[in-house]
Amino acid sequence: MGSLKNNKKPDKKSGGVGEEREMAESICRGAEEPWRVLEFYSGIGGMRYSLMKAGVNAQVVEAFDINDKANDVYQHNFGHRPYQGNIQSLTDADLDSYKAHVWLLSPPCQPYTRQGLQKHSADARAFSFLNILELITRMLKPPVMLFVENVVGFETSDTRAKMVEILAKSDFVTQEFILSPLQFGVPYSRPRYFCLAKRKPLSFQCQVFNNQLLWSPGRLFGNNENMVIGEYDQSQEDWDKLIESCQPIEKFLEFTSSRDLVDLETSSFATTDVSANGLETSEEFVEGDALDFSSVDQFVVPLSLIERWGSAMDIVYPDSKRCCCFTKSYYRYVKGTGSLLATVQPKKKGKASSLREQCLRYFTPREVANLHSFPKDFQFPKHISLRQRYAMLGNSLSAAVVAPLLQYLFAQPC
Ligand SMILES: C[S@@+](CC[C@H](N)C(=O)[O-])C[C@H]1O[C@@H](n2cnc3c(N)ncnc32)[C@H](O)[C@@H]1O
């Protein structure tokens, strides 16, 4: 995988529709060569892990991210440092030089989140995404497949409308999904928006879903025995059944008992200061270098936080079949940022029993990675602090959802 910095930008050659069709047709014939993939907004590599999990014959030829810490993590795990720069500054010639067939993109989601200002395409963080999509219309060798991931809310944004317009203009057919790991047997609620796009003459296996937004994986993914596929509509009863069919949370834990938990009364964490909004202000939590991540002690929720924010906490148990989405603010705030684990199961679950006695702890970064269905060998380099780990994981994605979607994208109709 070469870096853009080292690549000489190619001269523009004459090309045209005929040449593009020829390229697409040669891809259709199923050459032995791997698909050449570009991973935009690569973060800690969730897309790349999903691609590996999907088992398709593909090679990431370059990844792009502006964040140096995320690039440290990516390099640590994949042995390649992504191109570190603003995606907005890429040109059509830069992108042509990679001769890539497939683009994977997970652009920033803040312009579309409910908590944000919802400025959509007017938000500066949306510019780079629309900018590179526009480049497709000017490229000599545009990609033939695209995969876009974002938050729920993106589907009603004007960015999505512009994306679909650009893709249609460039001869792409799209299929859109809103799916959660719960629909794939993982006890994790993280619904996300996905857009899959294929350039004609390529086509989807199930063309009946062209130009549609689907909320269920349904029969799309065939009879894969390793996947629990929910055939559910939106009723509460169906969701309850779906959740019941998920694996228990304990399968995703690295610390399974409360045995090692420190005595809350004597723990230094019990006296941690808490500001308004549940912001954890203790410096003891901030930097990773001095912390031993193999000990569960640092994940204990301080009593002061429980007393002040207990009513707003989402508490789950090892035998629970669902937990809430971990956001990038997990461990900094407790309200709405992800579930907390009760390590001592009371006779009566929930807030009817004393939270204090339930020994609440945060999920560890490894456990969040497990719930994202990352492989066991995924690791953070030592210098990445605990907060940074949670922040990067919160920005990442569920490989359990993305991998089957990628398999579906890459599959050619018979
Ligand atoms: C939603 S996260 C994607 C995370 C990624 N899919 C993963 O698995 O970790 C968005 C990423 O895009 C990066 N980013 C945002 N704007 C960028 C830009 N203009 N150029 C390059 N990278 C950018 C951020 O640093 C962040 O890592």
From TrEMBL:
Query: This protein's superkingdom?
Result: Eukaryota
Which residues are the active-site ones?
109
Q: Which terms are listed as keywords in the entry?
A: Methyltransferase, S-adenosyl-L-methionine, Transferase
Question: Quick one: a GO cellular component term?
Answer: nucleus
Q: Which GO terms label this protein's molecular function in UniProt?
A: methyltransferase activity
Q: Record's Pfam families?
A: DNA_methylase
The processes (GO biological process) annotated in the record are:
methylation
Against InterPro entries, the record matches this protein to: C5-MTase, C5_MeTfrase, SAM-dependent_MTases_sf
User: Which PANTHER family does this UniProt record tie to the protein?
Assistant: TRNA (CYTOSINE(38)-C(5))-METHYLTRANSFERASE
Name the chain's protein.
Answer: DNA (Cytosine-5)-methyltransferase
From which organism does this entry originate? Herrania umbratica
Organism classification, top ranks?
Eukaryota, Viridiplantae, Streptophyta, Embryophyta, Tracheophyta
Gene that encodes the chain: LOC110410558
